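Lab meeting, item 3. Inverse folding demo.
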């Protein structure tokens, strides 16, 4: 699967790692607004300048199977619409949008274009969350007055030695 990823900060870093470590996936292009995140991604993954862009329109010219959107969420719909209009499959990091009506308009647009789009929600299937849910049933914890949840994912910050 040839993937064009849009966004190189935050979640984008973990997606880049996943793409590089997954058999059958190839980073066909990387889009970033530029700056330190793009330079860091190019250096860390040894990316050729020819696949790194600061403009989504140029990246959409590359042959790919999927456009992966990992930019700040207020930009999700803008990039998802461009990708859908270009006839691409789109995977969008959650949330789709901060605006429910705008998200609805995107769904209508995607359906009209015959575009396939998905929103990533990769925490919902974690065993720990299902165990917590079961413990909060009437047979478990009863009727709690309040609950605090702190959901974090560990990251190995050590870089391989060259």
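The presenter then showed the designed sequence:
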């Amino acid at each position: 699967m040839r993937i064009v990823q849009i966004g190189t900060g935050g979640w984008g870093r973990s997606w880049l790692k996943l793409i590089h470590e997954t058999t059958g996936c190839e980073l066909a292009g990387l889009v970033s607004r530029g700056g330190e995140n793009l330079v860091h991604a190019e250096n860390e993954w040894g990316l050729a300048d020819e696949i790194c862009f600061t403009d989504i329109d140029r990246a959409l010219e590359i042959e790919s199977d999927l456009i992966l959107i990992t930019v700040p969420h207020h930009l999700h719909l803008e990039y998802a619409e461009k990708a859908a209009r270009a006839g691409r499959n789109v995977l969008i990091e959650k949330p789709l949008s901060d605006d429910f009506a705008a998200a609805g308009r995107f769904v209508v647009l995607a359906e009209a274009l015959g575009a396939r789009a998905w929103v990533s929600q990769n925490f919902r299937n974690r065993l720990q969350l299902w165990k917590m849910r079961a413990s909060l049933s009437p047979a478990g914890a009863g009727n709690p007055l309040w609950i605090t949840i702190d959901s974090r994912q560990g990251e190995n910050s050590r870089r391989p030695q060259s």
